[in-house]
Amino acid sequence: MTFNDFMARVSEVVIQPILLLAFGVAFLIFVWGIVQYIHNGDDAKSREEGQRSILWGLVGMVIMISVFGIINIIQGTIGVKKTPGQTKIQEQFRPTLDRVPKE
Hints:
By secondary structure, this protein is mainly α. 80% of the residues lie in helices and 0% in strands.
């Protein structure tokens, strides 16, 4: 197993699930804030708590998306091959000479 294979496997098995879990938690905090804000429309203190939860949920989601991008940039810089899911997605959007119709 080479260094590139090891790092790709660590990214696939450890880092990606942690990022997804953290993003999910931030999303749940965001949704909980919306529920608090709507459900407690009359109570100013509860609405403020809901607004705070919405804000921190959004901040958490933005941070997780940024971390995902930074990790991909670092992997590309040091030459770590992408995980299988990332490679498939990139191939769908990258035009190749094989896909161009020949005249």
